[in-house]
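Lecture 7 notes: from sequence to structure.

We start with a single chain of 145 residues. Read the sequence below before looking at the structure.
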Amino acid sequence: MIKKAVRFAVALGAGIGMAVVAIPGAASAANNGYAWACWKAPDDRINGGCAKLYANGEILRVEDMQADGWGVRAQIQKYVPDSKGVKRWVNHSTPCFDDTSTSNTNGGMTVCNYNTAENIPIRVHIWASRNGVYKYHNYSPSIKS
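Now the structure, written as tokens:
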């Protein structure tokens, strides 16, 4: 009887261990070759704009989701050491811009193609912009370029 209980406990423990290994964590979604972020005004129920960054080719797709007068800007940031060797997030190239009045052939979004050094952490910085005013900043999880 005790041997059966011990065997059952060992089998159960091994099964639980396999389940834990087989189930990905919530943060692993950012490691599928892309990361995304959206901005939303505090009083809105839907996103004002979203950006999706693809690591392969560093392609940034930006879409304004509402005709509310606010455009969407998004920029790649890279995690690199400064002159003293301290790693920091720094902007890479110019922002990608989209608003609902932008004419494009990419399903309503603007697509920007960038190049970064390989195998460094990168992320999306997204924000709303209107007439030189910027707000509702947000950041994606980081991925490797």
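The longest helix spans residues 2-22. Keep this in mind for problem set 3.
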